[in-house]
Write a structure and sequence with these properties.
- The structure is a single chain.
- With 273 residues, the protein is mostly helical.
- The chain contains 8 helices and 4 strands, in the order H-E-H-E-H-H-H-H-H-H-E-E.
- The protein has a 4-stranded mixed β-sheet with strand order 1-2-4-3, with helices on one face.
- Helix 2 links the parallel strand 1 and strand 2.
- The longest helix has 23 residues.
- It is globular.
- The relative contact order is 0.14.
Length: 273
C-alpha cells in the first residue's frame, strides 16, 4: 500500500502538471521525501519498532522515494539515543548495500496487486481533488472544516478497530508482555541546554536569531553562496554519488545518498535532486 501511494502520487502529479501546461518534462516528475511512520511507533515492547521501521523504509524505496528518513526505535518514548540512531541509520545502509532493491527503477512494476492498488488510489485521490476544486479550492475546503473532519473520521475508525482487536498491533493489543523490559532513553537537561545556548549567544553577538552566522571572519558571502561555489554540479553544495544505477529522473544521475553518515544526523541518507 505504501509503495502504491508513491506510485499513485507520481501519476497524479504528472496529470496535474500536464493540465497546467508544463513545458519541461522534468517538471512533471514528482520528487518525494519519505519518513517512516511516527504513528506506528509504540511505547510498549519498543524493539518491535525496529521491524516496523525496516518494513516502512523498504516500502518507501520500492515506491521510488528520492529521500528517506528512518525513525529510531525509542522515539515514541523520548529523543533517540546514539544506540537507537545507529540502528535507524544502518537500516538504510542495509537496504542500500545488501538488498539489491536499488538495481531496478520500479521493482514492483507489473504486479497485478500493486498496479491495481496504484490505480485505485489514484482514482480515489482524484475524486477528492475534484471535490475540493468544486468547493473553490483548498483554502475554502479548510475553512469549511472538510479536511479536518475527514481526518478525524478516519482516525476514529482506525482507533476503534484497534480497540476491538480487529486491527492487531503486536505487543499492544495482542501478544503483550507480562512485564516490559527496561530500555535506556536519552535524558535531556532542558535548563542546562537553555543556559548553554544563551551563553553562546552572549559570547558571539554576530550570531543571528535563527542560530546561524552571517559569515566567518573576513568573509562576506553566505553559507548558501559558499555551497554554490563549492559545488561542481548544478550549484548543489554537496557531494553526490550514484547508487545501483537507479535513474529516477532521466538524467543519468540516479538517486543519491547523502555523504553525511553521522549516526545521529537525522538518519537521512537517501537524497535525490
Amino acid at each position: 500500500m505504501e509503495a502504491a501511494k508513491l506510485r499513485a502520487a507520481r501519476l497524479l502529479w504528472h496529470r496535474v502538471m500536464t493540465e497546467f501546461g508544463a513545458k519541461n518534462e522534468r517538471s512533471k516528475m514528482l520528487r518525494t521525501h519519505c519518513q517512516t511512520s511516527g504513528v506506528s511507533l509504540q511505547e510498549q515492547d519498543p524493539y518491535n519498532n525496529v521491524i516496523r521501521t525496516a518494513y516502512e523504509a523498504m516500502s518507501a524505496v520500492l515506491g521510488g522515494t528520492q529521500s528517506l528518513h528512518t525513525n529510531a526505535l525509542d522515539e515514541a518514548i523520548a529523543l533517540p539515543t546514539d544506540f537507537s540512531a545507529r540502528i535507524a541509520r544502518n537500516t538504510q545502509l542495509i537496504l542500500q548495500e545488501e538488498t539489491g532493491v536499488t538495481h531496478v527503477v520500479d521493482p514492483l512494476a507489473g504486479s497485478y496487486y500493486v498496479e491495481k492498488l496504484t490505480a485505485d488510489l489514484a482514482d480515489r485521490a482524484w475524486a477528492l481533488m475534484e471535490e475540493v476544486e468544486e468547493m473553490g479550492g483548498m483554502t475554502k475546503a479548510v475553512e469549511s472544516g472538510m479536511p479536518k473532519l475527514r481526518i478525524e473520521e478516519t482516525a476514529a475508525t482506525r482507533q476503534a478497530m484497534i480497540d476491538r482487536g480487529d486491527e492487531v498491533i503486536v505487543g499492544v493489543n495482542k501478544y503483550r508482555k507480562d512485564k516490559e523490559d527496561p530500555i535506556d532513553i536519552l535524558d535531556v537537561d532542558n535548563v542546562k541546554v537553555r543556559e548553554s545556548q544563551i551563553a553562546r549567544l552572549e559570547k558571539n553577538p554576530r550570531r543571528t536569531r535563527r542560530g546561524g552566522l552571517r559569515g566567518g571572519p573576513g568573509r562576506t558571502d553566505t553559507p548558501r553562496q559558499r555551497g554554490r561555489q563549492s559545488s561542481g554540479s548544478g550549484g548543489r553544495g554537496r557531494t553526490s554519488t550514484r547508487i545501483g544505477g537507479r535513474d529516477q529522473h532521466g538524467d543519468g544521475k540516479g538517486i543519491r545518498p547523502s555523504p553525511r553518515r553521522s549516526e545521529n544526523a537525522g538518519r537521512c541518507l537517501w537524497r535525490g535532486l
